[in-house]
Amino acid sequence: MADFDVELDATGLKCPMPVLRAKRALKSLVQGQILRLLADDPASKSDVPAFCETVGAELLGTSNSGDSFVFLIRKGIN
Predict the structure, then answer these.
(1) Domain range 6-72, its CATH number among 3.90.1300.10, 3.30.110.40, 3.40.50.720, 3.30.365.10
(2) Exactly one of 5, 6, 11, 15 is catalytic; which is it?
(3) pTM of the entire predicted model
């Protein structure tokens, strides 16, 4: 079983698109569900944590998978 509910592949997209797509994806989730975001834009490494803090989502972890960053984001109350 996967450790996330929805996966969003934002590889190939440049700032601010990975964050905007993540925002849209989180809207479709219920509180507590987890989004796995894949992004290869170097700016996403700082943009995604800032985005999570802004919207009240919990960044559960960040890792690398090849040339991509993998972010696990738990939807908060918003």
Answers:
(1) 3.30.110.40
(2) 15
(3) 0.93
